[in-house]
Specification:
single chain; 493 residues; Porin; 16-stranded antiparallel β-barrel; 3-stranded antiparallel beta sheet; elongated
């Protein structure tokens, strides 16, 4: 009986469980199907969202590719049928400018014993038996400038200007990187020129006014000091410049690190050969003020490294020659800012150099009106010592300054501009002349020759875009022969 009751109880339990399972199965299945359906709906929504995002990204990429700056490249060979034209694609991070400049100069000197710069060194007889010399020189420059500006007025950029000299050598003008805040502050590093403290007006070259820190001083000549020793564009070093603009004020500090002996032609100074021990460091602070047509500036440049270069005397003792400090002042009235056609531009410049065994004072004034430029420069050199033992022996009576004493140099320069020749913008021809004169007061009296007039012509053309250049050799020669004047480019080679 007990076994029968137990069996009945077990069978009743299984029956109730089976009944419960049978009754609950449809509800559970429906619930699971509803969950599966919801998952399918969510998956479809996610897929639709992903497809929309892909379409948006595709349109954006297409828009970026379409708006990316491209330059069409013309090919000498015809493009194959159906082929895409050749293009040059830029980075799109900023503006790129490509431009060129061509300058040809024809220079001449009426005497081999002149003070003019066409003679390479005082000890070199470049025109034996001749009283005249004509020379053609020049350059072709290609410029690449890049600039990126932000909405907060921040900017950064670069400039590279390789050039080919007419003598077959490759050279370089500027190679500079800069960044800063627009109309506020700026930092520049590389090869470039700092603030011009001795402007000459127009594109005029006067003896020893070259715009580099190299070969400015030459034994045998007078030194027209123009605050350019620490300005930059050195062949043996680089610049680091910081500037600040505050209303009408402009502040600048340029640092030039270079081989200081490159300042002297053939590394000769006062009849001695210089030995370079270490690089110099020129500090060149400038304070300028500008208001409308009037501007003025004061500056100083000084080498702060002792014993950078010098020589050993007869007893083997080291003699430092690297102490050099200069001061300058310039004032400009630019009437062309308000009257481009009839305005007058006038510059007044003063500079003073305190160097080892020599002091130099220079003052100049020049004016420009209707393309006519006229200027005068006075230079006073006081030389306290000069090693004449070997210098005069190699001079062959062509050395103007080879003795201690005081020397006054008077230079008159003039130029005339023919703008936009053949109605071509920036195709300019300059004619001009410079005449130097020397009045010595020597400690040791020595007879010297009379300086002579230099003559020549210069022509230049520039453009902000690449393109064909027109030969101007015929124009240059004709104008030079007819005028009998001289002008060389300010970018002196």
């Amino acid at each position: 009986m007990k076994v029968k009751y137990i069996a009945l109880v077990i069978s009743g339990l299984f029956s109730s469980g089976l009944w419960a399972a049978t009754n609950n199965a449809p509800a559970d299945i429906e619930k699971r199907l509803a969950q599966l359906e919801q998952r399918l709906i969510n998956a479809e929504q996610r897929a639709a969202d992903a497809e929309a995002k892909i379409q948006t990204l595709t349109r954006q990429q297409a828009a970026v590719a379409k708006s990316a700056p491209t330059v069409k490249v013309e090919s000498a060979e015809p493009v194959a049928p159906g082929a895409e034209p050749t293009t040059l694609t830029l980075s799109g991070y900023g503006d790129i400018k490509f431009y060129g400049d061509v300058e040809f100069n024809m220079d001449g000197a009426s005497s081999s014993g002149s003070l003019t710069s066409v003679k390479t060194t005082a000890n070199k007889d470049w025109a034996p038996g001749n009283n005249e010399r004509w020379d053609i020189n020049g350059r072709l420059l290609l410029g690449f400038d890049g600039m990126r500006k932000m909405d907060n007025r921040s900017f950064a950029g670069f400039s590279v200007q390789p050039l080919a000299d007419l003598n077959g050598k490759m050279n370089l003008d500027d190679a500079v990187f800069f960044f800063g805040q627009e109309n506020d502050w700026k930092v520049k590093v590389g090869r470039f020129e700092a603030y011009d403290m001795f402007p000459l007006n127009q594109d005029t070259f006067v003896e020893y006014s070259g715009n580099t820190a190299n070969d400015l001083y030459s034994d045998g000549y007078g030194y027209i000091y123009m605050m350019k020793e620490g300005r930059g564009r050195s062949s043996s070093g680089g610049n680091f410049l910081m500037s600040k603009t505050l209303d009408n004020w402009y502040f600048e500090l340029n640092t030039l690190l270079e081989n200081g002996s490159t300042l002297f032609q053939d590394q000769q100074y006062h009849g001695t050969e210089l030995e370079n021990e270490k690089n110099v460091a020129y500090l060149r602070p400038v304070i300028a003020w500008n208001s409308g047509r009037f501007s003025t500036a004061i500056a100083m440049e000084s080498n702060v490294v002792n014993n950078a270069y010098g020589y050993h005397d007869a007893k083997g003792r080291w003699v430092d020659q690297s102490s050099r400090t200069g001061y300058g002042y310039t004032m400009t009235w630019n009437g062309q800012k308000t009257d481009p056609l009839d305005g007058v531009v006038t510059n007044l410049n003063v500079a003073y150099m305190d160097a080892e065994d020599e002091t130099d004072f220079t003052a100049g004034v020049n004016s420009l009106w209707h393309g006519i430029e006229l200027g005068y420069i006075y230079a006073h050199n006081k030389i306290e010592s000069f090693n004449t033992a070997n210098f005069i022996a190699n001079c062959d009576d062509n050395c103007w300054i080879a003795d201690p004493g005081k020397y006054d140099i008077h230079t008159i320069h003039a130029s005339y501009l023919f703008p936009n020749v053949m109605n071509m913008k920036n195709f300019n021809i300059y004619l001009g002349a410079t005449h130097p004169g020397l009045n010595p007061t020597r400690t040791t009296a020595t007879a010297r020759k009379t300086p002579a007039t230099a003559a020549g012509c210069a022509s230049s053309i520039s453009s902000e875009h690449s393109g064909a250049r027109i030969s101007r050799a015929l124009f240059i020669m004709l104008l030079s022969l007819l005028s009998g004047h001289e002008l060389t480019g300010q970018h002196h080679v």
